[in-house]
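INFO batch 0412 | record 1 of 1 | parsing
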Amino acid sequence: MLFLFSDLLLIASKCSVSQFRAHLALPLHSLQLLPSDLPHSFTLSGEDTCVVVTAGSAAEQAGWCDALAAAIERARERPTHVDTQLTPAHTDESSSGGGGAGGALTFVCWHRAASLTRQHLNLAMRTQLSGYLLRKFKNSHGWQKLWVVFAAFTLFFYKSWQDETPLASLPLLGYAVCAPAPEDGIDKEFVFKLQFKNHVYFFRADSHFTYTRWIEVLQTPMLH
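INFO prediction complete | emitting C-alpha cells
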C-alpha cells in the first residue's frame, strides 16, 4: 500500500488483521517517475532506490502517475529536508479498525486493491445522504425497512433515525450501482442494485425523486 503525502511517499504492507508495516519513506524531491515495460506499471527511481509499482488497472495507473508527477514537481519547487528514517514505532503502526472513517477506508482499499485520491477523500467528506429504504439481499424474499446513511463512501444501517449505533455498515469502494436485471426477478418500482463481485444488495425507495437522488449520490468516482 502506498501513502502519498506532500513531501514523501510511504510504502507499507499488511502485517496483521488491523495493522500495516512501513517499509520505505521516499522524499519526493529526489524521486524520478519513469515508465515501465510491465502492464499498468511505472518506476520510481531515487538516490539509492528503484521501485516498480503495478496498479490494478490502466485508470489507477494514470491516476497514480498524475498525482505523483504533480507532487514531485511541487516538492522540487520547495525542497526541504525530509526525515525518512523509520523507527520501530513507525514500522508497525495501526491504520485500520475502529479508528474512524479514514482508517476503515484504508482497510477496505487494501482488501479491494483500490486507490483513494485526495479528491476522493474531499468528496467523501462533502457527500452525504440519509433516509428510509427497503433492503433486500440477493437470496432473500422479504424487504427490511431501514434508516440508511451514506457518508465517507459507506452505507450505515439503522432501525430508525433515532438510533445512535448502526446495525451494520457497507463500504462501497468498488461497488457498481445500477437497475436490477431481468434475471434478478425484481418486479417492484424504484429499486436499485449494488454489486461487488458476488455481493449483491437491492434497495427500494418510496418515490421516483428519492430513487433518483440516491442514484445521483451513489454514482461517485469511487463506484465503478
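INFO post-check: The two ends are 21 Å apart (CA to CA).
INFO record closed
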